[in-house]
Design brief:
Elements (H helix, E strand, L loop, with lengths): L5 E6 L6 H10 L5 E7 L10 H14 L7 E7 L3 H7 L4 E6 L2 H17 L4 E6 L9 H9 L10 H17 L1
Parallel strand pairs: 1-2, 1-4, 2-3, 4-5
Length: about 170
């Protein structure tokens, strides 16, 4: 019997979008076990806490009709990505690419990660054409300004965003 292929799909998921869910669904065809790593990443000044993001991702993944047979789990992390990958015995880091603009950054990261551990490969999945333009920062900006974000996130995530923006406007 072969060793199960474990992959890590890291991100801040602030919030999780339909584009993320598309990559997760497709990643389940590539690995036997997928660990979705929700990065603490306080440098990005997240709208949601790490616990809220983990809970949102976990809820969305459980409701996702996976195309593959991989076991999927969601974990927070606040360490170097390669250390996180090693801690879950991952042999693959999965990354989504939306456009050419993503490529240069991701290419550099893949090179750095390869220097840290040559045993862990980076695999890029192209975003489907329906999701190539979706970015969490744009979703937040549209939502903050009252635009319809229903095409970009699930109804549950949309409600969480609407509620958060209402809380923030009440505080202002």
């Amino acid at each position: 019997m072969s060793t199960p292929r474990i992959g890590v799909y890291p991100g801040s998921f602030d919030p999780i979008t339909n584009g993320h869910l598309d990559i997760i669904s497709r990643a389940t065809k590539v690995v036997d076990r997928l660990v979705i790593g929700v990065a603490k990443n306080t440098g990005k000044d997240p709208l949601f806490s790490i616990d809220e993001r983990v809970e949102m991702v976990d809820t969305e993944v459980k409701l996702l009709e996976k195309a593959g047979d991989a076991v999927v789990e969601v974990r927070p992390f606040d360490i170097l990505l390669m250390d996180f990958a090693e801690s879950v015995d991952a042999s693959v880091i999965l990354r989504g690419l939306r456009a050419v603009s993503d490529f240069e950054y991701e290419f550099q990261m893949a090179g750095m990660n390869a220097r840290l551990n040559k045993q862990v490969e980076t695999v890029f999945l192209m975003a489907s054409d329906r999701h190539q333009f979706i970015a969490s920062r744009f979703v937040k900006e549209i939502g903050r300004l009252g635009g319809d974000i229903g095409h970009f996130v699930s109804p549950r995530v949309k409600q969480r965003l609407v509620s958060r923006f209402a809380e923030l406007s009440d505080e202002a």
